[in-house]
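Re: the pair you flagged

First of the two:
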Amino acid sequence: MDQAEHADATDRDPQALPEELARRETLKAKLDEACARLEADAKAQAETARPAYEKKKAAYDAKTGRRGRAPKPPDDEPPPDRQISLTDPDSRLMRRSDAHEFRQAYNAQAVVCAEGSQLIVTTDVVATSADAPSFADTVLSMEDTIGLPKTVLADTGYASGQAVRKLREKGIDPLVAIGRPCARRPYDFRPRPAEREPRRITEPWRLAMKDRLETTEAGDLYRRRKQTVEPVFGIIKSIMGFRKFSLRGLAKVTTEWTLVALAYNCKRMARLQAA
């Protein structure tokens, strides 16, 4: 009777699960949701890669003799080592380079005017460390706002034949750096494995882009890239103090990055007016 009266006097629902079991049920639900998301992402990636596989398979079947290894169909099951964050499932593990650590992060993109104003004209946020897949879509997003540019300057991380073709179809002239052999820096004393031979450039569009960038006109124009976009990110990080996102989820992070770009543009426009 004493136990019954004590239970009636408390606000806790007597039919509720114990706190420990409730936490386990919540965790299990999150894990099930994460597994379902990984499976959905794997299927989406497989569907995206299927046209390229079918093209390679048709070319392989058409060859006489069929030498070499047959193309492997895309797997719609996530690999065992695939990971996902329970806190922010939209983010991904990525790092800036082989010399940096892995972080759960997003990849913030910005297109900056190279004609002197250094204003950010459009932004984007992607959940992949690679820049090339979102290159064309980020630039073409300006079509319905301020209009498309005549020329786009991008570093070697944006080198993509598909993106270059997509931009040219819209009348945009992309100048994209082609990777050069990585020379060891004289002040880098970290132990490194034996130097590998640089990858040969065989794609026609890469060879044509490389030859064009070696001309005086294209080379002078491309050199504006480093002095245009790099200071913008430096100001946002060092002067404005924005180094990490405070929100979670791709949609909210995209909004946050847009607000940061607007704040930078207001600051830049004030300096331009003062000058």
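Second of the two:
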Amino acid sequence: MAWVGIAAALLPNGRTVASIIKLDINNGCKSCRINLRSDLAKWLLECEFVLWDEAPMSPKASMETVVRFMREVTGIDLPFGGKVVVLGGNFRQVLPLGYFSLQLC
């Protein structure tokens, strides 16, 4: 998955973060619209790892929402519900200060 549609289009079977996690963009990406018993939630539970391209371009709220949602889906109180997550992108495009305040643990 990727934050922007252009990067998602370059990935095989790629989709945007907002389309996979159903982020409520109108609410500042602070919530998602997935039922924990839905087929999509079950599919996310079965995923072994997550590849997130253009992660530095994502708003902090979107990453926190994904972390919180994956914890709820898996029932595991670890960052991203214990899933292996690879954050890709050009980390030189943004200042590192914003990522120090991300509450993953």
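The chain has a mean pLDDT of 81.

-B.
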